[in-house]
Amino acid sequence: MEPIHVTEWDETGGEGVPVVFSHNIFTWGSDEAYGFAAQSPLADRYRLLLADRRGYGASPDTDRSDFDTDADDLVDLLERQGAGAHLVGHGNGGLAAMLAAGRRPGLVRSLTLIQPSAFCAAAGHPVVEAMLERVRDSAGVPDSVTPEQYLRASTEGLGMPMPDPTPRRLRAVATSMRERPVWDAAVPLEPLKAAPWPTLVICGTWQDAPETYRKYAGEPLIACAESVADALDARLLRVPGYYPHTQQSATVNAALRDLWETRRY
């Protein structure tokens, strides 16, 4: 299978410890709107590897984005780093990062999860159960809905500004529309809890988010982040807003540096 595309940012001349990033829906690794562009200052000491999941960015097309395939791609990328790498995942990319870390814990130096979509960790939580009931009872996205219409409904329809619908953005949205449902995933939490490396979970407070967006997306993601942090005995960092690594990049970047510096090489 053709490998995924990886954007590399490195100001260390190849001497920095590698960090692998895995993005969420509607985006790609280096995207300024939803991706990890705001983490570029970290390239002063680390070699940043921003993976584009299949169907996103410059990676190969896929009939259906799948978290298991994403995890395999992340494992392959980790293996190519020799001594492994720090691993950072956001949303659905956070779910893939958890699966990859569970499969090959020896390749992981640390794990950071930004509002991960690992809803299995919050099974039974009333907010998450209500969300799952809504999505499971829905008829899905009709074939007549275009990626631009879906992007508009997912942003402006929830009180959010809509990003420029460029061809690359619309390709990402089209892939997101047919991703395998994240609630199908079963993440083995015990191997992650028992792993020797540190884990950080980052979550927005969502207090300034539009009400509908906070209710239908924010509250389940907060519950999930809290449950994941509790299950893994991880540190939980709460920051204002709803896109922590873009809206509060200075705080998030400082937390990442601190996490990575807890490991001595």
What is the quaternary state of this protein?
Answer: single chain
Q: How much β-strand is present in the residues?
A: 15-25%
- What's the tally of helices? 9
Order of SSEs, N→C?
Answer: EEEHEHEHHHHEHEHH
Under the CATH scheme, which class? Answer: Alpha Beta
Q: Could you say what the CATH topology is called?
A: Rossmann fold
Low-confidence stretches: none
Mean pLDDT: 94
By CATH, the architecture is named 3-Layer(aba) Sandwich
Using only CA atoms, what is the Rg? 17 Å
- Helix-strand makeup class: alpha/beta
Cα distance spanning the termini: 34 Å
Number of domains: 1
Total beta strands: 7
Walk me through what this model shows.
It is a single chain. By secondary structure, the protein is of the alpha/beta class. The protein has a single domain (6-261), classed as Rossmann fold (3-Layer(aba) Sandwich), CATH 3.40.50.1820. 38% of the residues lie in helices and 15% in strands. The protein has helices at residues 67-79, 92-103, 126-137, 147-155, 167-177, 189-194, 211-232, 244-247, 249-261; strands at residues 6-9, 17-22, 46-51, 85-90, 108-114, 199-204, 235-239. It has a seven-stranded mixed sheet, sandwiched between helices. Helix 2 links the parallel strand 4 (85-90) and strand 5. Helix 1 packs across helix 2 (92-103) and helix 4 crosses helix 5. The radius of gyration is 17 Å and the shape is globular. The model has no long low-confidence stretch (mean pLDDT 94).
